[in-house]
Amino acid sequence: MTENKKKTIHKDALALKTHITDNFSDEKQASLHKHIGAMLSLMAEKLECDVASANKKGEDVVPFLQFWIVKKNANGDYTATFKSHSFARQLTTLFNENNQKVSPKMREYFYQVLTKPPVFLKYINELAAIAKNQGEAAELYAPRNLIYLFKVIMLSLLEIVYAQDDVWLTLSPIGKFTRCFRLNRSSHEDKLKGGVLQFYPTYLT
Question: Is 47 helix (H, G, I), strand (E, B) or coil?
Fold first, then answer.
C-alpha cells in the first residue's frame, strides 16, 4: 500500500485580496482594500527597519506583531519563533475546541494578542510615518485606516492558513505563514493536533 501524502497548498497575496473582497466588501472602509498591497509593503519595511535597528545595537531578537520574534542565527539567516508559546497553544486550543474550524472566539483572541496596547498603536504610527516618507497614498497616513487594513489582513491570513492542512501563504515581501505541527515542549503535543501558526521571514537579508 502506498501512503497517502497531503498535498501542499501554496497561496499568495492574490488569495489574500480575494478573501478580503469576499468577506469584507460590505464594510464602510471597503474602499481601502485597493491599498492591501501597499499595506503589506509597509509592514515589510517596518520589520526590515526593526531588524536593521537591532543589528546596529548588536541585538539579534526582534519582536514581530506581538505574536512572533525574529531571530538571527549563527549563519546570518533569520528565523522566527513565538513570542509566547502560550499564545500559540491557546490559538490552537480554540481551533480544536471548534472541531478544527476558525471560530469568532479564535479570531477575537488572535486579534487581541496582535493589538495589545501600547505596542500596537506605536506600530501603527510608525507605519503611518513610513507611508508619508515613501509618498504613499494619503489614505495610508491615517492610523484608523491602517488599523482597518491590518485587521482585515491578519484575520484573513488566519482564515486562509487554518482552512486546510499544509497551506503556505506567501505574502511578499514579508514572508510565509503556515501551520507547523511540532513545538519544543512535547508534553503539549496532544493539544497541538491542529498545528501552530508559524511565520518564516524569508525576505529579510
Answer: helix
CA distance 205 to 38: 20
Determine the 3-state secondary structure of 199 from DSSP. Answer: strand
Question: 116: closest CA among 151, 72, 66, 71?
Answer: 66
pTM for the structure as a whole? 0.90
Instruction: Give tens-digit pLDDT for 76-133.
Output: 788 999 999 899 999 999 999 999 999 999 999 999 999 999 999 999 999 999 999 9
Beta strand residue intervals within 23-133, DSSP E:
61-64, 68-72, 78-82
C-alpha cell of residue 60: 539579534
Distance (Å, whole) CA 49 – CA 52: 5
User: Taking Cα atoms as reference points, which of 171, 172, 146, 141 lies closest to residue 156?
Assistant: 171
Tally Cβ neighbours within 10 Å of residue 61: 11
C-alpha distances in angstroms, 26 versus 16, 21, 23, 31, 151?
17, 9, 8, 10, 15
Q: How far is CA 63 from each of CA 90, 127, 140, 189, 195, rounded to the nearest angstrom?
A: 19, 15, 23, 25, 21
Q: Which residues pair with 168 in a beta bridge?
A: 10
Q: What is the DSSP letter of 170?
A: E
